[in-house]
């Protein structure tokens, strides 16, 4: 049996003039010896029609085992029962065998909503442990000045891992952590967090990672301020040693993750913590 991890995102979920959905997804096995088993459920993302869920769902199977999946997408309602926005069916090993280990299907309702499901081999390295991380932004570019120039960006940070199938020319970055946004602040401290290496980087500290800083928008249409590419090993080597504003150790961010595009700096991300603890 091989251990896999499943991640999901969707596009063009239904909305109207009065309501934007707060979607979450549920994955269930619908046939075979594990029929009816719920693999897991994502977090709810508030007010978005294009959710990119952070949650990673783990399961074990063999290429010879038929494992059909039903993915249901719901709109979480605060005062009423959650509403089913649509569902789609997949087969786990077919997803893994597809180009980029990614398949999509239209949700079964009248509209253009599309659901994307990725299945990746879960363990691809020999590193083990739990990583504790904390970041701070420094001199983050203000892209929300407002009418009188008094506004400030509301930055949040995303950490994503690279999934690439070079034979098919498919590359996607799966978000594995998304911080809370910090209102009106260009030098934000984001809360520390812990995550297992299997979920974070397939147990490989040298796996390609990307860090993005975005400006939060109430309508869910968040805007990228800047980004850079790295590895967990590199983050561990660049932890701040000269206080929490250590620009010498910090990573400079650009609109293009490789420092291209206009080439203008959009600020810095300072690594305050990158500590690996043994698994319990």
Automatic annotation (TrEMBL):
GO cellular component terms, A-Z: plasma membrane
SMART domains named among the record's database cross-references: C2
Superkingdom field: Eukaryota
Alphabetical list of PANTHER family matching this protein: C2 DOMAIN-CONTAINING PROTEIN (PTHR10857:SF106), COPINE (PTHR10857)
Pfam families xref list: C2
GO molecular function, one term: calcium-dependent phospholipid binding
GO biological process: cellular response to calcium ion
Organism from which the protein derives: Phaeodactylum tricornutum (strain CCAP 1055/1)
Entry protein name: C2 domain-containing protein
Domain C2 intervals: 1-116, 119-245
């Amino acid at each position: 049996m091989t251990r896999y991890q499943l991640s999901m995102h969707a596009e063009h979920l239904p909305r109207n003039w009065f309501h934007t959905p707060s979607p979450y997804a549920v994955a269930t096995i619908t046939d075979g010896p594990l029929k009816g088993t719920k693999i897991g459920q994502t977090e709810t993302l508030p007010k978005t029609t294009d959710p990119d869920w952070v949650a990673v769902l783990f399961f074990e199977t063999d290429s010879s085992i038929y494992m059909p999946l039903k993915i249901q997408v719901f709109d979480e309602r605060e005062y009423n029962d959650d509403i089913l926005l649509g569902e789609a069916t997949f087969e786990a090993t077919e997803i893994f065998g597809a180009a980029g280990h990614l398949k999509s299907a239209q949700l079964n309702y009248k509209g253009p909503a599309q659901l994307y499901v990725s299945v990746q081999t879960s363990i691809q390295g020999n590193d083990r442990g739990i990583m504790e991380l904390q970041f701070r932004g420094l001199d983050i570019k203000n892209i929300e000045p407002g009418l009188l120039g008094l506004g400030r960006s509301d930055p949040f940070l995303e950490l994503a891992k690279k999934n690439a199938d070079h034979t098919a020319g498919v590359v996607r970055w799966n978000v594995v952590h998304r911080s809370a946004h910090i209102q009106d602040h260009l030098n934000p401290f984001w809360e520390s967090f812990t995550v297992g290496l299997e979920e974070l980087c397939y147990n490989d500290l040298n796996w390609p990672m990307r860090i993005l800083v975005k400006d939060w928008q109430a309508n869910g249409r968040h805007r990228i301020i800047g980004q850079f590419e790295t590895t967990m090993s590199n983050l561990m080597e660049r932890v701040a040693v000269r206080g929490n504003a250590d620009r010498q150790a910090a990573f400079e961010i650009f609109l293009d993750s490789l420092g291209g595009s206009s080439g203008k700096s959009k600020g810095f991300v300072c690594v305050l913590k990158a500590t690996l603890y043994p698994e319990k």
